[in-house]
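Re: [ENG-882] Designed sequences occasionally contain unexpected residues at chain ends

Forwarding the minimal case from QA. C-alpha cells:
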C-alpha cells in the first residue's frame, strides 16, 4: 500500500471513530436509562439516600434512569485497599444524580470516582508572604479537582448520608463543586408554554448568561460574609464563607437536604440554586 493510500485509510478510520463514538455512547446511555433499577441497588439507595423516596413519581423515574446511566458510564476505583461494593456505587451515584435531575449535562466528562475507605490527605505547595514555598498536608473527606475524576472518602460519604437533614453531605458537596467547575451554565428553564400559559403568547424563555447569575451569587456570598463578620449565627455552615466556590457547594447541600428551611432563610439564594439545578426540592 502506498503512503497516500495508508494516510487516506487512517483519515477514514479517524472520521468513522469521531462520528461513531458519540453515537455509540448515546445509544449505550439510552439502553442503560431504559433498564429498571435492580432491587438490590434500589434497596441500598432507599437506606442511604432517603430523599429518593420523597421524589415525585416523574422525577423518581428520571432519577432511576440517571443512576443506571451513571453506573454504566463511570468507573469506580477503590483506593488504599478499599474494595468498592454495590452499596458504595449505588449510594454515590444516587447522590450525584439528585443534582442533575433538572440539568442537561449528566457529568459527561467525568470518568472515574476514586473512593478511599476514610479521610485521605493531599499535599499542596503553599507560598508564604516571603515567597517561601512549603509543602502543606491537608486531610480531606472529598475533592473535585479535575474534570475527569472525583475523590471521596466512603466513611464520610456514608456518615453524612445517614444524617440527611443537617445540610452536611460530602458527596453532594463534591458533585456540586464538579458541576460548578464544569461550566455548562444554568439549567434550561421550564418550557415556555408552562410559563406563559395565561398570556397566550408563547415567548421562548432564554437561559440567562452565567455571569449575571454569578454576580447575584456573589451578592448573596457577600451578605453571608457580613453576617459572619458581625458574629451572627448563620443558617449556612460558616465554612461557606471560605470563598464563593465553597459557598455554592455548601448551599447546594442545604438545597437538597434542608430545602424548605433554606428557602425561608435565604429566598434569593434558593431561587439562584433553582435556576442552576432546574429543580424545586422544597416541594419534594
Ligand atoms: Zn468544598
Amino acid at each position: 500500500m502506498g503512503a497516500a493510500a495508508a494516510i487516506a485509510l487512517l483519515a477514514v478510520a479517524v472520521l468513522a471513530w469521531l462520528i461513531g463514538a458519540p453515537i455509540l455512547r448515546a445509544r449505550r446511555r439510552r439502553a442503560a436509562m431504559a433498564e429498571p433499577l435492580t432491587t438490590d441497588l434500589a434497596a441500598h439507595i432507599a437506606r442511604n439516600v432517603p430523599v429518593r423516596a420523597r421524589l415525585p413519581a416523574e422525577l423518581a423515574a428520571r432519577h432511576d434512569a440517571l443512576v443506571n446511566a451513571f453506573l454504566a458510564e463511570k468507573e469506580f476505583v477503590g483506593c488504599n485497599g478499599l474494595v468498592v461494593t454495590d452499596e458504595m456505587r449505588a449510594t454515590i451515584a444516587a447522590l450525584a444524580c439528585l443534582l442533575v435531575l433538572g440539568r442537561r449535562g449528566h457529568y459527561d466528562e467525568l470518568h472515574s470516582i476514586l473512593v478511599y475507605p476514610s479521610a485521605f490527605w493531599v499535599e499542596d505547595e503553599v507560598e508564604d508572604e516571603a515567597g517561601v514555598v512549603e509543602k502543606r498536608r491537608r486531610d480531606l473527606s472529598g475533592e473535585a479537582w479535575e474534570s475527569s475524576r472525583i475523590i471521596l472518602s466512603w466513611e464520610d460519604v456514608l456518615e453524612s448520608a445517614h444524617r440527611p437533614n443537617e445540610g452536611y453531605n460530602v458527596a453532594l458537596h463534591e458533585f456540586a463543586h464538579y458541576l460548578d467547575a464544569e461550566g455548562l451554565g444554568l439549567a434550561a428553564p421550564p418550557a415556555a408554554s408552562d410559563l406563559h400559559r395565561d398570556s397566550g403568547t408563547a415567548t421562548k424563555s432564554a437561559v440567562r448568561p452565567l455571569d449575571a447569575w454569578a454576580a447575584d451569587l456573589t451578592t448573596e456570598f457577600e451578605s453571608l460574609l457580613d453576617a459572619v463578620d458581625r458574629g451572627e449565627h448563620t443558617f449556612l455552615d460558616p465554612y461557606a464563607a471560605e470563598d464563593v466556590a465553597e459557598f455554592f457547594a455548601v448551599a447546594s447541600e442545604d438545597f437538597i437536604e434542608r430545602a424548605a428551611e433554606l428557602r425561608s432563610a435565604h429566598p434569593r439564594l434558593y431561587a439562584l440554586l433553582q435556576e442552576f439545578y432546574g429543580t424545586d426540592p422544597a416541594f419534594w
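QA comment: On inspection the terminal residues look reasonable. The pocket of zinc ion is lined by residues 173, 177, 246, 249 (CB under 6 Å). Proposing we downgrade this to a documentation issue.
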